[in-house]
Write a structure and sequence with these properties.
This protein has two domains: 225 residues, no CATH class; 401 residues, Alkaline Phosphatase, subunit A (3-Layer(aba) Sandwich), CATH 3.40.720. It is of the alpha/beta class. 50% of the residues lie in helices and 8% in strands. A hairpin with a 4-residue loop joins strand 11 and strand 12. The protein has an eight-stranded mixed beta sheet with strand order 4-3-5-1-6-7-2-8, with helices on both faces. Strands 9-10-11-12 form a four-stranded antiparallel beta sheet, with no helix packed on it. The termini are far apart.
C-alpha cells in the first residue's frame, strides 16, 4: 500500500506543488524584502504543505490530461498573481485586494505607466511556471498509475485508502495551521491585528502577506468575496463618561460641553450590540478643549482645495510661486502625509471630509456612497450657517462624487460637465485646472448666490493626474520650464501638470481680491497622495532626503489667509499630521458647532496633541520613532526618547481600535442611525412639552371656569 502511494500520481503532483509554491513564496519575499527569519515563515510552510496536499489530491483524481493542465494552470495563476502584486505595490504602493476590483479599469487606462513601474526582477516569479511545465512533461510520459474512481474494485479500494490517508494529512495540517494563528510565540507583541483576526478578514493586505504569504493571502482575499465577514467588535476600556457633569460658565469658555442625556438614553435602550459598541466608543472618545487657535478664522469663508498628486515638490518658490506664497505666509505643516490605500484619491478625500479611516481593502466612498455623515465637513459648516458647494473637474467615471458629496452635505455639486469646461474622457488629456479655477470663481462670485452668507467651497483638481509617460496637453504645455532641472521626461511632465494647479491658485486669489473677498477667505490646501505613477528611483532625485519609511508620502498641508502675514500670525508647525487631522483642526480654527468625539483624528494645534502620522496599514511615525506594522519592527531616529515597548503597544492598540471603529461606523451607516434616534428623542421631548402646555392650558381654563362660577354664586347671594 505504501509503495503504491509513493508511486501514485498524488505524490508526483504533491512534489510539483510543494516545489512550485515554495519557489513562488521565496522569490516573492526576497524581491519584496520581506523577512525570512521570523515565526511567520513556519506558518507559511504549513500553508504550503496544506495547499499542496489539497491541490495534489484534486489533480490525482482527474483524468491525466486534465490533471496536467490543472496543475500548470494553478502554478501559473499564483505566479502571475505574485508578479502583479509586486507591480501594484510598485505602481500604487499597496497590495491590491479583490474587493477593489473596480479599480482594475483605472489600471487598464494607465497600462503604460503600470507596466513601466514593473522591474525586471518581478518576472523571476514566473520561473515556477516553467518548472511545472517541464515537470509534467518528464514525470507523466506514459505512466498510467493515476488515481481515479473508474478502476476495478481492488484498485479502487486501494485508491480510496490513499484518498483517506490524504484526507487525514490535510485534516492534521489544517489543525496545525489553525493553531499557528493563535499560539503566542507566533504572534508579535507589537502586531496591530491578531493573526486569527487577520486570517478571518485580511483587511490589511501588507500585514496579511507578511504573515500568511502571497498564496494564502490570495485565497483568503477571495474568501471575503464569497463570505460576508462581520467587522471586529471594538471595546473601549477607558473610564465611562456617560453621566452629565455640570460645568461653570467660566469652564464653558474653555471646555467643550456636551449634553449627552439623549445619547445615554439611546445606549440604555439599544439592544443591537454592534450599535452600542459604536455608541460607547464614541461617547467616551477623547475630546480636545479649546485652545489659543480656537476661532482664529471664525465667520470667514473657506476654500478647500485637494490637489491631485501634489507631493512636496510643489513647495518651490520658483516653479510654483502661488502655492509657495501660501506656504510661507500661512499656517503650514512641515511633516504632513497623505498615506495611500487601494483607492487613494477618493478614500483620502473621504477621510478629509469625515476624519474617519477608510476601509483599507475597498473603495470605501464608492462602496458606501449612500451613507450619510452628520459630522462631515459640509454638515458642521452648514450647522454654523454656511452655504456649501463642491466641485471636481472630471466626470464620475471612477468615483460617484455626484452622490457622495450630496450625501456628505454639499448643497450643490458641480462635475466637469456642469462646470462647462473642456475635458476629454480619454485619460491622457485631463481637464485644465486653470479652466477649473475660472469656472469655479464664475459660479461662486458672479451668480450672486453666495453673497448673503459665508461659504464653504470644496475643489478637487485633476490636472496633476498620471499618466506621466504619455504625451498630453497638461504634461507638455509647461514642460520646457523644467528642462534645466535635468530630470527625466516623465518627472518634467508631472511638474508641468502641477503648474496648471499652481496657476489655478493664482486665478482664484486674483478673482477673490477683485471681488473684495480675499481677506475674508481662508484656503485649506493639501494633496490626495504623492505621484505614485512615477517610480521612486526617478522621483528621489528631486528631494534632499531619502524616500524611505513612508517619506515619499509627504504632501503639503497649508491653511492660508492673506491677513496672517500682516498680523504676524503665519507659522510653520513641526507636528506630524495626516488627512485625519485636517477636519478637527479646521473645525476648531473656525469655532464651529461640532463634537470632536465623532472624529478619529485629533486637532493638530491642541496643546495635548500627540504628534504622529498614522499610515493605512497601522504603521506610524514621528520625529523620534518609526513603527513598521508590516514587519512589526521599531526604528528609533533619536538616541534619547521616551518610547518604551509599553507605550508603543498602547499607541498600536489605540490606532487599531480607531481603525476598527471607523470600519464599523461606515459599514453600519452609523450616523444615519444616530441622527434618527436623536430626532425621535427630540420629537418625543417636543410632544411632551406640547402635552404639558396643553395640560396647563386646560388647568388654567378649569380654574377660570371655577372662579367664574364662584363669582356668580357670590353675586346671586348679594
Amino acid at each position: 500500500m505504501i509503495k503504491k502511494i509513493i508511486k501514485s500520481d498524488y505524490i508526483k503532483y504533491l512534489v510539483l506543488f510543494l516545489i512550485s509554491f515554495t519557489a513562488i513564496e521565496v522569490i516573492f519575499r526576497v524581491i519584496e524584502s520581506l523577512s525570512l527569519k521570523d515565526w511567520a515563515l513556519l506558518r507559511i510552510v504549513l500553508g504550503i504543505l496544506l495547499l499542496s496536499n489539497i491541490f495534489a489530491l484534486i489533480a490525482s483524481l482527474l483524468p491525466e490530461k486534465i490533471a496536467k493542465f490543472f496543475s500548470v494552470l494553478i502554478v501559473f495563476a499564483f505566479s502571475i498573481y505574485a508578479v502583479l502584486q509586486m507591480g501594484f505595490d510598485s505602481f500604487i504602493g499597496v497590495y491590491m485586494s479583490f474587493n477593489t476590483s473596480s479599480q482594475l479599469g483605472a489600471v487598464k487606462d494607465y497600462i503604460a505607466d503600470f507596466i513601466a513601474a514593473f522591474e525586471k526582477k518581478y518576472y523571476f516569479d514566473l520561473i515556477p511556471v516553467l518548472f511545472a511545465i517541464i515537470y509534467v512533461i518528464v514525470m507523466f510520459k506514459k505512466d498510467k498509475n493515476d488515481l481515479n474512481f473508474k478502476l476495478k474494485s481492488k484498485k479502487r479500494l486501494a485508491n480510496l485508502a490513499t484518498v483517506t490517508a490524504c484526507a487525514v494529512i490535510i485534516a492534521v495540517l489544517s489543525v496545525l495551521y489553525g493553531k499557528s494563528l493563535t499560539v503566542s510565540f507566533m504572534q508579535n507583541k507589537f502586531q496591530t491585528i491578531s493573526n486569527a483576526e487577520l486570517f478571518r478578514n485580511p483587511s490589511v493586505p501588507s500585514i496579511a502577506v507578511q504573515n500568511f504569504g502571497i498564496i494564502t493571502y490570495c485565497l483568503d482575499d477571495i474568501k471575503t468575496l464569497v463570505v460576508d465577514v462581520e467587522e471586529t467588535e471594538t471595546t473601549y476600556n477607558k473610564e465611562k463618561k456617560n453621566e452629565v457633569t455640570p460645568v461653570t460658565e467660566e469652564e464653558k469658555d474653555l471646555k467643550r460641553y456636551f449634553d449627552d442625556t439623549d445619547w445615554n438614553e439611546i445606549i440604555a435602550e439599544e439592544k443591537d450590540k454592534r450599535m452600542n459598541s459604536i455608541n460607547n466608543f464614541l461617547i467616551n472618545n477623547d475630546s480636545s478643549d479649546k485652545n489659543d487657535y480656537t476661532g482664529l478664522f471664525e465667520g470667514k469663508n473657506i476654500v478647500f482645495i485637494l490637489i491631485e498628486s501634489a507631493g512636496n515638490m510643489m513647495i518651490d518658490p520658483v516653479y510654483y510661486p502661488n502655492l509657495y506664497k501660501m506656504y510661507s505666509e500661512g499656517l503650514s505643516f512641515e511633516n504632513n502625509y497623505s498615506p495611500r490605500n487601494s483607492c487613494s484619491t477618493m478614500n483620502n478625500e473621504f477621510s478629509l471630509m469625515t476624519s474617519l479611516y477608510s476601509i483599507y481593502n475597498n473603495c470605501t466612498a464608492n462602496t458606501y456612497k449612500h451613507n450619510t455623515y452628520s459630522s462631515s465637513i459640509f454638515n458642521i459648516f452648514r450647522k454654523t450657517g454656511y452655504k456649501t458647494v463642491s466641485m471636481h473637474d472630471y466626470s464620475d467615471a471612477y468615483y460617484s462624487r455626484n452622490v457622495i458629496h450630496k450625501n456628505m452635505g454639499s448643497e450643490k455639486y458641480y462635475g466637469v460637465q456642469k462646470l462647462g469646461i473642456k475635458w476629454q474622457s480619454e485619460y491622457v488629456n485631463w481637464a485644465s485646472d486653470e479652466d477649473f479655477g475660472e469656472a469655479a470663481m464664475k459660479i461662486l462670485l458672479d451668480s450672486g448666490e453666495y453673497e448673503d452668507q459665508p461659504f464653504l467651497l470644496w475643489m478637487t483638481t485633476v490636472s496633476g493626474h498620471q499618466p506621466y509617460t504619455a504625451s498630453s496637453i497638461t504634461g507638455d504645455t509647461y514642460q520646457s520650464l523644467f528642462k534645466e532641472t535635468g530630470y527625466k521626461l516623465e518627472l518634467r511632465r508631472y511638474m508641468s501638470k502641477l503648474k496648471f494647479s499652481d496657476n489655478m491658485l493664482g486665478i482664484i486669489m486674483d478673482r477673490l481680491q477683485e471681488a473684495g473677498k480675499l481677506d475674508d477667505t481662508v484656503f485649506v490646501i493639501t494633496g490626495d497622495h504623492y505621484p505614485y505613477g512615477i517610480p521612486l528611483s526617478t522621483l528621489k532625485v528631486a528631494f534632499d532626503y531619502p524616500l524611505t519609511d513612508y517619506e515619499n508620502e509627504r504632501t503639503p498641508l497649508i491653511i492660508y489667509n492673506s491677513k496672517l502675514i500682516e498680523e504676524n500670525k503665519n507659522q510653520k508647525f513641526e507636528q506630524y499630521t495626516t488627512y485625519m487631522n485636517v477636519l478637527p483642526t479646521i473645525a476648531n480654527l473656525f469655532n464651529l458647532n461640532y463634537d470632536p468625539r465623532l472624529f478619529m483624528g485629533d486637532d493638530a494645534l491642541a496643546p495635548d496633541y500627540e504628534s504622529k502620522a498614522v499610515f493605512t496599514d497601522g504603521s506610524w511615525k514621528n520625529k523620534d520613532v518609526y513603527f513598521n506594522a508590516k514587519t512589526q519592527k521599531i526604528k528609533y531616529y533619536t538616541e534619547d526618547n521616551e518610547f518604551t515597548s509599553d507605550r508603543i503597544m498602547s499607541i498600536n492598540k489605540d490606532i487599531t481600535a480607531k481603525m476598527n471603529m471607523s470600519t464599523s461606523i461606515i459599514k453600519n451607516n452609523y450616523f444615519s442611525y444616530l441622527d434618527k434616534k436623536l430626532k425621535k428623542k427630540e420629537e418625543a421631548r417636543e410632544q411632551e412639552r406640547l402635552a404639558q402646555e396643553q395640560a396647563l392650558q386646560e388647568a388654567n381654563s378649569t380654574e377660570e371656569d371655577n372662579n367664574a362660577t364662584s363669582d356668580s354664586g357670590i353675586t346671586g347671594q348679594e
